[in-house]
Amino acid sequence: MILDQPLKKWFVSKKGTDSNLKSLLKSISWRIVGTIDTIVISYFITGKLTMALSIGSVEVFSKILLYYLHERAWELSTKNKEDEPTEKYA
Questions:
Q1: CA dist., res. 41 & res. 75, Å (int)
Q2: What would the pLDDT profile of 36-82 be if each residue is shown by its tens digit?
Q3: Is the pTM of this model over 0.70?
Q4: How far apart are alpha carbons 39 and 46 in whole angstroms?
Q5: End-to-end alpha carbon distance in the chain
Q6: Whole-angstrom distance, CA of residue 24 vs CA of residue 72
């Protein structure tokens, strides 16, 4: 693919970890799926489309932020600790 390498530069850092932009885009796409799910469940429970849309619109923004922070925390916790010396046992 011609655009593969230029796009990869946007989404993967030089260390091979996900970039902030990729985490943000993943959080937005996941939130779209989650919001549709929330709207459908809310509609089944309330039977009112306007109520379901209201519930879905309220939760979408807070959960984008929460997912982004969650994603970055996982990225930090799974990072290789290159600066720490490795212990060798005899």
A1: 31
A2: 999 999 999 999 999 999 999 888 887 878 878 998 898 888 876 66
A3: no
A4: 10
A5: 49
A6: 9
Cα angle value 60/64/67 (rounded, 5°): 130
pLDDT confidence of residue 14: 63
List, in order, residues 6 or more apart from 27 with CB less than 8 Å away: 64, 67, 68, 71
**Domain range summary for the chain, segments of one domain joined by +:** 19-75
Please state whether 16 falls in left (phi above 0), alpha (psi between -120 and 50) or beta: left
Q: Print the SS3 string covering the chain.
A: CCCHHHHHHHHECCCCCECHHHHHHHHHHHHHHHHHHHHHHHHHHHCCHHHHHHHHHHHHHHHHHHHHHHHHHHHHHCCCCCCCCCCCCC
Query: Which of 39, 40, 81, 79 has the alpha carbon at shortest distance from 60?
Result: 39
